[in-house]
Amino acid sequence: MAAEDVARWGRLGATFAAALSVGCAAWGSAPAEAVVLSPGGSVTVIMLGNGHGHGMSQYGARGAAIAGLSARQIVHFYYPGSRLVTESEPRIRVHLSEVGARLTVFPAAGLRVSGVPDSLPRKGISRYRLVPGSGSGLWLQRLTAAAGSRWTTIKAKLPDGAAFHRRSWAAVRVALTDGRSRDYFGFVAARRNTAAGRSGGVTTLNRVSLDNYTAGVVSSEMPTSWQRPAVNAQAIAARTYGAYGMAHPMSGSYEICDTTQCQVYGGHRLYDGGSRVIWSDYPRAAEATSNQVLRYAGDVIFAQFGASDGGWTVAGGLPYLVSERDPYDNAASGDPYLKYRTKRTVASLARHFGLTSVSRVVITRRDGNGTWNGRVLHGYVQGVDSHGRSTKVSASGFDLAAALGIGTTWFVLRATA
After folding, report:
1. Distance in angstroms (rounded) separating the CA atoms of residues 103 and 101
2. By CB neighbour count within 10 A (0-12 exposed, 13-18 middle, 19+ buried), where does 43 fall?
3. Complete DSSP assignment for 356-415
4. Which of 43, 247, 260, 305 has the highest local Cβ count within 10 Å?
5. Which stretches within 67-223 are classed as H helix?
6. Among 113, 181, 171, 185, which residue's Cα sits nearest to residue 142?
7. Any idea what the Cα angle at residue 90 is, between residues 87 and 94, rounded to 5°?
8. % the chain with pLDDT above 90
9. What's phi and psi for 316, nearest 5 deg?
10. How far apart, in Å, do the first and last CA atoms of the chain sit?
11. Would you say 220 and 196 are in contact if contact means Cβ atoms under 8 Å apart?
């Protein structure tokens, strides 16, 4: 979850920037904190939380469940003012990032592809794939199971966006670039990356029900062994995040991605290179919360979540993403991100900021919430540049977190030899 939170910051930058304009009067007025460093020494970083702190803390959800809260109570705490509603089940289009330039699938009973009237044969077939054709459409190719066989085109001029699918939305098994494979429910489609010609490859999309999508997110984002209300709260947040993507699509071809830049979606099952199941989705939480999403003033909310808020949430520039003390992200939740620490060399800090050496890090502003007067908003690094001149480099809290290689802006620094 930690790496996922850090990566997710990229997409949330605009929202966070908006949030900085909220509650400026509440920013801490404590004097600047200066940490004097030895160029050849190191700095100890003591941290709280892991991630942006907006919305639901996953460890906080677990702590809330341990304290006896229901899934409904958990999501209403982390998204105050929102309303939990049940809606008709829509379909979401997800960009699949692990497939590569050709969409390759395994044969299966009842496997079909757009533009071909009959089911595709299974006997003696190793794989099928969709590739860009010489015109504007796609070619369907097959690879037989015979030793030394080559890919053969068996159908040309399929429509761009042609999809593999099976009856009743049964799973289609898709080959991944690393030799593994995944099952996906619904339709698995190929979109050309260029208007015409055989170069450029395809982008692979999965059109799937929002509940099946949710099941594929929950076990990618939270341990399903956790308390049931916490896992169900994760399902509600994940489905709502997906529904928000549908209302604010990433492109004309798909609404959301399957990586940490959105939320992690793993389909139905993951197989290793030897066809052994090594991961599966978690339909139980999706079914228990079926079609439930959170709305605010009639609109689906931006249901951000992260591993740990450290005991205090962060305002996200939206009325349901507020800054408040979180009593549930605590030691009872098992949160490992409560006053944990790491060490970095001063030389690595200097390299990050393009300096030959660093002599001081000064924190000038925090948000005023909680321990150490809260998260770092701004500061600067003082050192020597490549021309031998003393200089100061201004840095936001996120800049400093990136330089230190940590996943939170809630930290203090201590010089070490």
Report:
1. 7
2. buried
3. SEEEEEEEEEE---SGGGSSEEEEEEEEE-TTS-EEEEEEEHHHHHHHHT-S-S-EEEEE
4. 305
5. 71-78, 210-221
6. 113
7. 135
8. 90
9. -115, 20
10. 32
11. no
Other beta carbons within 10 angstroms of residue 196's beta carbon come to: 14
Any idea what DSSP says for residue 223? -
406: left (phi over 0), alpha (psi -120 to 50) or beta: beta
Percent of the chain with pLDDT over 70: 93
Q: What is the pLDDT of residue 29?
A: 53
Instruction: Give residue for tokens 């030897």.
Output: 274
Q: Which amino acid would we find at residue 7? A: A
- Going from the C-alpha of 150 to that of each of 126, 128, 146, 153, 196, the distances in angstroms are 11, 12, 9, 10, 24
pLDDT in tens, 235-244: 999 999 999 9
pTM, two decimals, is: 0.91
Contact 79, 55 (CB under 8 A): yes
> Tokens in use for 288?
């228990």
Q: How far apart are CA 258 and CA 98, in angstroms?
A: 9
**pLDDT per residue as tens digits for the range 361-383:** 999 999 999 999 999 999 999 99
Residues in the chain: 417
DSSP string spanning 272-283?
-TTS-EEEE--H
Q: Parallel, antiparallel, or unpaired: how do β-strands 256-257 and 91-96 relate? A: parallel
Question: 410 near 310, Cβ under 8 Å?
Answer: yes
Q: Alpha-carbon dihedral of residues 78, 89, 93, 5, nearest 10 degrees? A: 10
The DSSP code for 318 is B
Distance CA 255, CA 95 (A): 8
pLDDT in tens, 120-148: 999 999 999 999 999 899 999 999 999 99
